[in-house]
Amino acid sequence: MLTLPHRPIRIAVAITLAVAITALIALVLWSILTAASGGATGSRIDIPHLLRMTSIQAGLTTVLSITVGIALAWALNRLRFPGRDLVVGLFASAIVTPGMVVAFGLLSIWGRNGWINQASEAWFGISIGSPAYGLSGILLAHVVLDGALAARIMLARLDAIPTGRLKTGQSLGLSAFQRFAIIDWPALRGTIPGLAAIIFLLAFTSFPIVLLLGGGPANQTLEVAIYAAVRQDFDLAGAVLLAATQIAVCSLVILAASALAPIPTNFGASTPPRWRDRGPARSLQALVLLGCTIGFLLPLTAVLVDGVGAGMGRVVAQPAFWWAAASSLVIGTTSALLTLLLALALALGRGATGSGTLRTLLGMPAFAYLAVPAVVLSLGFFLLVRTLGIAPSTAAPFVVILGNSLLALPFAMATLGPPLEAIARTRGKLIRSLGLSGWRQFALVEYPLLGRDIGVMLALAFCFSLGDLGVIALFGTQDFQTLPLMMFRALGSYRNNDAAAIAAILLIGTIAAFVGLPKLFERIADAAR
Amino acid sequence: MVKFTRLALAVLSGLFVAPAFAEEVPILRIYTYDGFAAEWGPGPGLKAGFEAICGGCFVEFIAADSSIGTLRRVQLEGDTTEADLIVGLDTAIAGEARATGLFADHELDLSGLSLPGEWTDTQFVPFDYAHFAFVYDTDTVPNPPKSFEELIALPDDFKIVVQDPRSATPGLGLVLWIAAAYGDRAPEIWAGLKPHILTVTREWSESYNLFLEGEADMALSYSTSPAYHIISEGDDTIKAALFEEGHLAQTEVAGVLKSSHAPALAQKFLAYLTSPEGQKQIPSTNWMFPVIDLGADLDPTFATLPQPEKTLVLSDDDIAANGQRWVDEMLAAVQ
Q1: What is the ipTM, given to two decimal places?
Q2: What architecture is domain B130-249+304-334?
């Protein structure tokens, strides 16, 4: 590794940050454990039952999402039609679409008085009941989000199949099925375990969707049970036990997943196909694409239709809305910038060292948060500030910003890490021979090449925190609320129109940030070049 | 460094908190449930009424997630809580609330109240009451069930919405109601109800909303709920289903926290809440019976509402001894 420039400061900063984050997580866990030992009585929560239910839900979500993902990726890879880029972009946006928004849209579509039931009753005179609640509702919402995510990642794999292989296949006259089995499947197979682990983790720790659609105690994840234990039962001992269980399960899944391929979050444009299938396969592809697009778009359309209607005027007339919107923007921006700083510092340090152990160590903080998810972290912080005698409302903004930054860190590291390491590898010699300082290396070489990646990362972090409910759920007050929390409260209280309007605003804001920020930063970095 | 941190804290929290009022005016902070603080609830009227007579004070209603959530919140916040008062617990949760040691005595003379029974509680002050009941719409449910067993016997697509007994006082009330009516058979009744339960919501208003939106056929509410539709909307199609087993009544209560920054003011608010001026606001905003005799000030519609023939009663000791077990049985049955 002689080619790596000597950057002791980068490594030192990264180590300091990694240690600080680890210490913070340890402090949070410690405060949970002390609170639990201090006088809390035995808990009544049936953890094995919860674990079983959550695992079944997450398992089903994983299988269904991967299946939908494969079918959709297959269809998108083969079909060429006007607006294809737009459709591909839409599915890519699933990663940032707030769970609450999707859950709300699903209620409008699949509820007893929803669009589908109304249509079905008008045309066939039969009702399909209320699939929006309970396990079916949770699975629907998860598959909408995670199926689209899986499809986008697998489509990238299919797009990357070398043209040579395709030409050979085409000249051999492979049938549509043979083509999938011989050419596509080997390309997809590699991503499935890693992707399955991530989807399982997302479903296992799902919070807003389960809170809204679970139907109360009948269907919970551990996250929702922790929230219920704290907010409904004041059962801190139970919450801690649940948190410990959650951490144990997630760590196991992460350990398994870290041995597998990482998840790319940054995609280039998908190139339209040259070799298209014919006959029934093509009809099937069109059908799959149509079904998935409708399934994905319908809830989001419902959100926009419901939101732009009755509630919007009333909502924007409320000062509370503007406070919540301002809080959301400030929190989103601050936590995105903090995420950028943390991820850059960690990734630069990681890229600057040749030591394998150190690289693993510096990669750890990114995973810490996945094991200690939003509600657990929030609970820990809550207890910590209480022990310190600080009013939770004073600490709330800091905790929410920090929590959201940590939440986005794994995705930020996955976005910035690989390109930075590639730069260090390929341009290390050049940088050394030019004798660039660390700062000039960043300003002249790394930053211009990273423009789009920084934009993508900021967009991800901003959108995650814009849609967050888990971190703020325990900290929010009437004076300090974000848009998702305001929406959650509106839903819980009579004001469905308000909730619809906020959901629409959240959806528009998320998509705008997700599409706009990468473009903006690409342009800024280009100007710097 | 400490100074800087403090400064940063002050600046940043200032960014997020709505403009504060000048500190000379004492502020009374009241934790309550969302429906109470809502613009259509009793909160705004009581705030205006009390501010007019308190001689310079500012009342702030802070809506927690749910009625029982107000108690959980002060338990979580401990000594750092800003709350002076909690309004919106009920007699069923009062025992647990008392056991936290967070509440002070009200020191009021409540002998003038007009309640079904004598009021002896030294910490909690009652402010309204009504019987729990399922409400339905005569347009969609022409033949409502007349008992829990009739409800259970209906086809599974007859849906009800109820509340979580851990977060909402009516949710807890339903658990106690079924326990009072069926004793050891309660788990069996819950198991029978399970297929009919569309969802268990955190708070009453969410359930009621789902019912009004047509997502469910019946919602757990109160025998007085139809008064809202008759008085405010001129709609007499919403009715309370009366059950042959008898109904349990709820009395909602308020209490002052020991940690209150303005205990005298808080006590004054409790006195106002039970005074004729305060009580007048309750029936047409919270849609419950007042706890004093309002005479002509009570809308005559309330007298026309059908009331259950039989009122079930559970003693405080019974609730203290078995309440947790009944809630656990309910949760186990609907899981």
Answers
A1: 0.78
A2: 3-Layer(aba) Sandwich (3.40)
